[in-house]
Write a sequence for this structure.
């Protein structure tokens, strides 16, 4: 800023160009076309070449299994590109709008996919005719993320993120709290106070800018941002209960604020918190980045809001989808099936890359019942595998990103600025309704 | 200045020698102007026009429709957009004067004849402006870390309580203003220094002979002559603030509680994360309008005095 007029002007022009270059194409390009249905039928050997976009450990898994796939199908080539997480969605969004430039197969998180299905109804291949017999093999909650509001399938679920409570067994022992006694979130708050008193350690980490805990607490209670056919659900009693819990944790000084993924990893490694209510895939980070903490973690089901209520939720998890612009959708689909509907390949991705399978038959594999050294001999994968079928499936639509930003504001307003949770949520629900042109659910706060 | 003299007699002018070459654009002209024209049309004119058009449309379920002014009307009731404007106003009122003031002091100091290693000092103050954004962001994240950050360590050593710089809405604003000032004060100081150096020594001498002290010399003689340079700094800084994106994107992502959200960061979120391109384009055009109006007012306000 300040003075760099030319660079700024260029940036502004570039931004405007990006915004609009994209628009020009969208009007002429995709909008007049039907969604391309990919149908069974073509036979004969697979051949040709596809490019796959992914990132981090998911890209590592793809690269490893691509070799196996190529060996099984001579004449095919699968080229995996790690596009990095940070700009992945900018790239995919622009590619879908421009109707050009995308890979043949894309990794898209389940939380993001409904936005693409909704905003680009002709942007992805409709896989409904192919997936039919696989539908029941995938986790119900994950399946919800890959189908449109009309029930058409546009991707296959890859991994899921069932939530449980990771705890530091040494700190809980010192505070004299039995983690298995944490049945409700009230128990959790009380335990946190005890742990902080005895050990001086805070209870959990939250991100002040990009929170993911609040939506998980919503899903645990059966809805996320929307329910009842696309109505705004930020002002529900469930939402108030979730935000009141977070505020209670904040008011007792049990939250440690850390920005971003690096903050979370570093603070956990340094032992700054006693627990992490987080997804199954967090385990890969613990074992990979904090081997020195071996034997100090345990896993129990998430505390419930009411005794006997659901003991899990979901955070993250990805899918694989084939853009309509793909030149070789048949090969892309064959590779997808090979990866995601094969028990052994799915289990190998859990073993090697820490991706927890959404493919239910894989959860019965003996590997998931083996004791794990890292967790002091506890059968940690079993805890997640048993919780996975109980993840409450929730409604999703294209306006998830809008809700996330607005809800973030409500969370920091209540916890950091000390505002009343119900008031913050009422305002947030109204703002979201305004931004999306949707109604709020009846029975919401007025 | 072309002064019109309507009553001028119609004296037939002798045909200039060049009249034999008609002033119609010829192929050669276009060959020279061509590349620039094409680049301008593709990368400037087309995006500008298309984004202006887009700001009157809305895309729902892949279908784009004309919605008139409703995207503009939305801004009036959008708390996040209004927050972003308030934040920008706050930065304009607090940070720009603070930074220009600091830059002036630095420029005057750098202009002193007794200062040694002047080139080095100038480079040191200018460096932040050319530092890559990523390095800048990482350094400030580390400096401002809540525990273990250098700023808080110093504060604790001085007996002050540590501050949760980037996680508290109020302090995050302070941190943003501080880091922006660090990055751009030196840049403006160098521009002001160039202005100071164009004012000859004889003016200092003349003021001294007339009995003016150092302070009077600066306030009554030097600064008034520096006005156009200060105006340049103020306007570019104002435009920069209104287009603020990189600093707050890298430091706080606009949070917590939208405390550091700016219109351009918000339009990025609306466009690229929420895929609401029509609304994002409308926000962009409001930013353009605000910049135009404020720059115009600043020219009027500062510029007129110059002519007296």
């Amino acid at each position: 800023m300040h003075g760099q007029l030319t660079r700024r002007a260029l940036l502004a022009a570039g931004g405007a160009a990006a915004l609009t270059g994209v628009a020009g194409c969208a009007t002429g390009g995709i909008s007049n076309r039907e969604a391309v249905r990919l149908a069974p039928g073509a036979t004969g050997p697979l051949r040709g070449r596809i490019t796959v976009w992914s990132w981090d450990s998911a890209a590592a898994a793809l690269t490893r299994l691509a070799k196996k796939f190529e060996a099984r199908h001579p004449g095919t080539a699968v080229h995996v590109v790690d596009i990095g997480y940070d700009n992945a969605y900018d790239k995919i969004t622009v590619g879908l709008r421009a109707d050009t430039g995308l890979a043949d197969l894309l990794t898209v998180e389940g939380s993001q996919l409904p936005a693409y299905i909704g905003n680009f109804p002709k942007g992805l291949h409709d896989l409904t005719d192919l997936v039919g017999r696989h539908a029941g093999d995938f986790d119900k909650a994950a399946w919800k993320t890959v189908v449109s509001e009309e029930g058409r399938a546009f991707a296959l679920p890859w991994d899921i993120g069932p939530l449980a409570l990771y705890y530091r067994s040494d700190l809980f022992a010192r505070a004299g709290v039995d983690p298995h006694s944490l049945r409700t979130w009230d128990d959790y708050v009380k335990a946190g106070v005890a742990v902080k008193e005895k050990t001086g350690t805070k209870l959990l980490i939250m991100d002040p800018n990009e929170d993911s805990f609040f939506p998980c607490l919503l899903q645990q209670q059966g809805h996320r941002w929307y329910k009842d056919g696309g109505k705004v659900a930020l002002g529900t009693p469930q939402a108030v209960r979730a935000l009141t819990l977070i505020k209670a944790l904040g008011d007792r000084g049990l939250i440690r604020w850390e920005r971003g993924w690096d903050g979370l990893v570093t603070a956990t490694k340094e032992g700054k918190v006693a627990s992490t209510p987080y997804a199954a895939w967090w385990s890969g980070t613990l074992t990979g980045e904090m081997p020195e903490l071996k034997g100090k973690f345990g896993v129990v089901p998430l505390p419930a809001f009411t005794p006997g209520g659901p003991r899990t939720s979901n955070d993250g998890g990805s899918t694989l989808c084939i853009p309509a612009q793909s030149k070789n959708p048949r090969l892309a689909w064959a590779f997808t099936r090979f990866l995601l509907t094969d028990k052994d390949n799915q289990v190998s991705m859990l073993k090697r890359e820490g991706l927890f399978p959404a493919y239910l038959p894989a959860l019965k594999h003996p590997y998931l019942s083996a004791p794990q050294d890292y967790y002091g001999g506890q059968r940690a994968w079993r805890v997640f595998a048993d919780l996975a079928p109980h993840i409450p499936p929730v409604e999703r639509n294209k306006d998830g990103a809008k809700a996330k930003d607005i809800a973030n504001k409500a969370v920091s307003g209540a916890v950091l600025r000390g505002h009343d949770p119900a008031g913050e949520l009422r305002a947030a629900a109204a703002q979201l309704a305004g931004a999306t042109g949707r109604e709020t659910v009846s029975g919401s706060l007025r | 200045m072309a002064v019109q003299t309507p009553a001028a007699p119609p004296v037939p002018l002798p045909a200039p020698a060049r009249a034999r070459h008609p002033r119609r654009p010829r192929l050669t002209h276009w060959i020279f102007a061509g590349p620039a024209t094409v680049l301008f049309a593709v990368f400037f004119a087309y995006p500008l026009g298309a984004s202006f058009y887009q700001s009157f449309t809305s895309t729902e379920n892949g279908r784009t429709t004309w919605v008139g002014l409703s995207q503009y009307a939305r801004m009036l009731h959008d708390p996040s957009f209004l927050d972003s404007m308030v934040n920008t106003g706050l930065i304009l009122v607090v940070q720009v004067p603070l930074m220009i003031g600091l830059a002036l002091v630095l420029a005057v100091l750098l202009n002193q004849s007794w200062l040694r290693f002047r080139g080095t000092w100038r480079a040191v103050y200018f460096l932040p402006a050319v530092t890559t954004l990523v390095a800048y962001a990482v350094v400030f994240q580390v400096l401002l870390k809540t525990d273990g950050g250098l700023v808080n360590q110093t504060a604790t050593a001085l007996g002050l309580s540590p501050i949760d710089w980037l996680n508290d809405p109020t302090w995050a604003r302070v941190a943003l203003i501080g880091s922006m000032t660090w990055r751009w004060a030196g840049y403006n100081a160098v521009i002001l220094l160039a202005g100071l150096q164009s004012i000859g020594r004889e003016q200092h001498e003349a003021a001294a002979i007339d009995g003016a002290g150092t302070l009077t010399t600066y306030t009554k003689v030097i600064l008034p002559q520096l006005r156009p340079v200060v105006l340049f700094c103020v306007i570019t800084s104002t435009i920069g603030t209104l287009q603020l994106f990189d600093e707050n994107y890298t430091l706080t992502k606009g949070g917590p509680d939208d405390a550091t959200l700016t219109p351009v960061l918000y339009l990025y979120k609306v466009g690229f994360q929420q895929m609401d391109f029509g609304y994002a384009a409308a926000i962009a055009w409001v930013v353009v309008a605000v910049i135009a109006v404020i720059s115009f007012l600043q020219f009027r306000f500062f510029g007129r005095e110059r002519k007296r």
